[in-house]
Predict the structure.
Amino acid sequence: MGRFRRRMYEEFSQEYSNDERFNAAYRKVKRIKGFYSHLKVYIIVNIIIIASNLNGDFFGHEVRESGLFSWHTYSTAFFWGIGLLAHALSVFGKDIFFSDDWEKRKIQEYMNKDAANNKWE
């Protein structure tokens, strides 16, 4: 953590020292920001790799005719994409598939269904 960020965090944490919700929200925002930084680097680096494979003259190599259809052109993006997906799931994991109120809605749905089935008993 940089000096400015640490100072900013310390100021906020002193102001909200008893508020655990603030600390949890701060950590969550920091993780989301880290993911978007990772995504930005992924996009930039893979654009450079694909462009260099498509046009070898850009980096002083000869032009490759099969650059667009070569596995080597996309292998870095593919494997790094798997890592990026794992990072996304670690940051947004349960929010992607199950929202905060999903469990409550499902319980209510099953209770309503059970009440409808037992209505005439």
